Amino acid sequence: MxxxxxxxxxxxxxxxxxxxxxxxxxxxFDHVIIVLDEKIIFRFPKDKEYKAEFENEIQLLHYLTKKVxxxxxxxxxxxxxxxxxxYDMVRGRELTASRFRRLSASEKDTVAKQLAEFISTLHTTxxxxxxxxxxxxxNQEKExxxxxxxVKKLLFPRLKKQEIQAIEEYFAELKDAxxxxxxxxxxxxxxxxxxxxxxxKNNQVNIIDFSDRAFGxxxxxxxxxxxxxxxxxEKVFKLYSGKKDExxxxxxxxxxxxxxxxxMKNSLQGKxxxxxxxxxxxxxxxxx
Length: 288
What we know:
By secondary structure, this protein is of the alpha+beta class. The protein is built from eleven helices and ten strands. It is 49% helix and 14% strand.
């Protein structure tokens, strides 16, 4: 759909809103994003699957807003047909690895404490709430089988022998780690720098984009934090008050190593990601 359609939809459904400028973000997997005057964010699900899930996401966030101390999206603009919704922009800038490195030691401690508290609260969400808002269940064993199948089919023909060997060793390690028991929890499931905002003026962490939320392995919510450094992840994990198991951090690190493989295979499957960026990350993470 063209940009004009989305803008007209906002005008029709929310005639009280006025704005001077807007920008459109279309590179996401699941939603088109419209930013009005850098103040209000509107999200449009791209397909029927995400449209069906959108209302559940909005209701879950209403619930979580009362539980977490970090800022999260709170949808105040919801169309009657529930096809679009908007919220006042959550403050802060994306906490990239380079931006994280520039923080003071005190600020890094604050980020660690707030992330640990947020993840702990999220992971202790009652199962009744998870069921009420139809949160999908993520099966890591199934994800592993799909990953192995796709990587062997799509990536192996493009990679060098030593790179293939490194991946096969990784697959064996991941398979073993998934063999250990763990308890599922409500997870953000994409807690990476692009969804972690740092509001330096208020010393506040804010979290966005809950569209991938899942009832799954709680270790997944620590994986994106390895982008900063291992010591930081260990600090967050030490402050974490949710249920822990002996293999949790190990699985988290293995999920982090999975990211570049997913980027590369997704690019070859037509998703809006860059193969070369994934390959560069793969070389760095796998040290090949």
